[in-house]
Amino acid sequence: MPKQAIRVKTAVLISGRGSNMVSLAKAAKADDFPARITLVISNRPDAAGLERAKALGIQTLTIDHTAFHTRRAFEKALDAVLREADIELICCAGFMRILSAAFVRGWTGRILNIHPSLLPKYKGLHTHQRAIDAGDKLHGATVHHVTAELDGGATVAQTQLEILPDDTSDSLSARLLPLELALYPEALKKVAFQLQSAKS
Ligand code: GRF
To answer: What is the dihedral of CA 135, 136, 137, 139, to 10 degrees?
Structure first.
């Protein structure tokens, strides 16, 4: 029997409901998935995703950013926890903290994020409304590598959908979500395979 490559130990960072995290975690339950989700960290103690992760049997942790005086101190604590847990890859999924250049430098090529726009369009917030206001015909979501430039790292995968004439920010976001939930596991799979082959 061929020897199975060791699955990439992955942490998911969340701030809220955690539906992308659940989608990643469920996909990663498959034995042949190249990554496994071993830790979910929230910067908010009240994030609904924490309970959802526990229900899936995943270890969870809150690192409340408001308990730290500086971004640097918060990130040092985050970095220490991730390294202590032997994490190899980080997936940001609705994680509402900007990661500094110093933090990102320590994890080059090992942090992914999902952003609800067709990057490079609409970096930052309010992406659905901005796409509607611009009269765009197409909208979507992007999984990208995280670099020091906000929403600026290389694209791993994208999904797109048509903007309908009566779409609102809410309706567009609701129609996009299922596409995001399908996209992120595929993107994680791709990057985890790359990391596995770099190791072997
Ligand atoms: C998703 O729409 C994602 O694109 C954006 O924030 C939302 C997170 O939702 N970055 P959830 O916490 O995964 O449910």
So the answer is: -140
How far, CA to CA in Å, does 48 sit from each of 55, 77, 82?
Answer: 11, 22, 21
Smallest Cα–Cα separation from 110: which of 80, 147, 85?
Answer: 147
Q: Which residue's CA is the nearest one to ligand 1's atom 7? A: 94
Question: Among all residues, which ones are annotated catalytic?
Answer: 115
CA–CA distance, 13 with 42 (Å, rounded to integer): 6
Sheet of 89-92: strands edge to edge?
A: 59-62, 35-42, 8-14, 89-92, 111-115, 138-145, 155-162
Residue of 180, 181, 184, 188 to test ligand 1 pocket, by largest number of atoms within 8 Å of CB? 180
Please state whether the predicted TM-score (pTM) of the whole model is above 0.85.
yes
Buried b / exposed e over 2-34, threshold 16 CB at 10 Å, is eeeeebbbbbbbbbbebbbbbbbbebbeeeebb
CB atoms within 10 A of CB 56: 17
- What fold characterizes domain 8-199? Rossmann fold (3.40.50)
What spatial distance separates the first Cα and last Cα of the chain, rounded to whole Å? 17
Give dist(CA 91, CA 120) in Å, integer: 19
Lookup result for tokens 């999902």: 114
Amino acid identity of residue 132, one-letter, is I
Successive 10-residue mean pLDDT values, the chain, 200 residues? 78 98 98 97 98 98 97 98 98 97 97 98 98 98 97 97 98 98 98 91
